[in-house]
Amino acid sequence: MSDYNVLIVEDSPTMRQLIAFALKRIRGVRIVEANDGVDGLKKLSSERFDLILTDINMPIMDGLKLVSLVRNDANYKSIPIVVITTEGAQEDRERALALGANDYITKPIQPTKILDVAKNLLRIV
Amino acid sequence: MQKDDERLVHSRGEEFLQVFKKGAEFTQELLRENERLRFRLLELEKSQGPGEAMPEAELKKLSERIADLEQEKQEILDRIRHVEEENQDFAARYLEIEDENNNLANLYIASYQLHSTLDFKEVLQIITEIIINLIGAEEFAIMLLDEKSDELQAVSTEGIERSEIPSFRLGKGTIGTVAESGESHFASDFESYERDFSAPMVCIPLKIKEHVIGVLAIYKLLMQKKEFAAVDYELFTLLAGHAATAIFSSRLYSDSERKLSTIQGFIDLLTK
């Protein structure tokens, strides 16, 4: 039985592996990976998650659409969401936060930053 | 090795914490003893009554005891200060190791992914992902050397159309020179750099030992990426070697697959 279930939604296997590596420092974490927004929603419906980390630019369904759908669904709306993206402009950040993302991390990826944000949202001291 | 270092740092940290706690307990004990002695001194003074002097020997003994305790207290305080300084050093070292660990993980994952496939297009895709996600480049081209024509041609681009990138002759211009010499090129000032396809901001040779098979030309970084960190240069070194090997192997594999299917076609034709 895991303490924290985390969903990583990202189309790049390299990125998924990097994010998972950073999160595995959290004791009791279980990671589930999804290739895009649609796959992410499918995985969300199958079990309970404590945190979602999503990319923006993905095929089939992008990360912003996923954020919007999750926030408007009574079953998932309380799950914290972190957006991890190459889009570094302030308006992109504001847009993601306005849709309901809890945090916004820009690439290139920094494992320490991801770990800090995840711990904060999972309320791990 | 890294884990051993971390374990050592952790166990040393625990040890110092224990010493620190013991020191604090001892200081408390000293303060209580001091208090007790002062109280006893007061009691003695009271019991002697006015004008009655405390025996000289007793007074001397108590004064010596107080001096000893004061000295011990000072020694403990010095020791605590020393342990705190050491703790700060270890905390700083722990952060350094943590950073190094993250960098090594990035390098390991990049290398693991590069050799995870023998499909040429997938290899190019993985190199592209590493450059975007780990280095933070927005516009770049992967160029391969055609050994028959001695020309470098873009086989994959990001942020720019492949048709926009001209071909470059080996030994000519920045790209040609990097391919010929096998030495990386970095623009002197990234902030004032203006895109020039023949003179990229960064140009890294893709080489197998000393044999250059192509180059990676970076023209623009992501807006949030202002400069390169030490790990980026390590990633460039990794890309120079591992990406070249992955590209070379996948091309070789594709060629052999194609030849095999041609030969199989002939065999089928002959045996039918």
UniProtKB/TrEMBL annotation, chain A:
Keyword Kinase among record annotations: no
Keyword terms, alphabetized: Phosphoprotein
UniProt-listed PROSITE patterns: RESPONSE_REGULATORY
SUPFAM superfamilies: CheY-like
InterPro entries, sorted: Bact_response_regulator (IPR050595), CheY-like_superfamily (IPR011006), Sig_transdc_resp-reg_receiver (IPR001789)
Modified residues (4-aspartylphosphate): 55
SMART domains the UniProt entry points to: REC
Name of one Pfam family that matches: Response_reg
Signal sequence interval, chain numbering: none
Domain Response regulatory: 5-122
Keyword Oxidoreductase: no
Matches recorded under PANTHER family: CHEMOTAXIS TWO-COMPONENT RESPONSE REGULATOR, STRESS RESPONSE REGULATOR PROTEIN 1
Protein name: Response regulator
Record organism: Geomonas propionica
Biological classification of the source: Bacteria, Pseudomonadati, Thermodesulfobacteriota, Desulfuromonadia, Geobacterales
TrEMBL record, chain B:
Keywords on record: Coiled coil
Entry superkingdom: Bacteria
Record bears the keyword Coiled coil: yes
Domain GAF as annotated: residue spans: 119-257
Pfam families tied to this protein: GAF_3
InterPro entries with a match to the protein in the record: GAF, GAF-like_dom_sf
UniProt-listed Gene3D superfamilies: 3.30.450.40
Coiled-coil zones: 27-100
Protein name per its UniProtKB record: GAF domain-containing protein
Native source organism of the sequence: Geomonas propionica
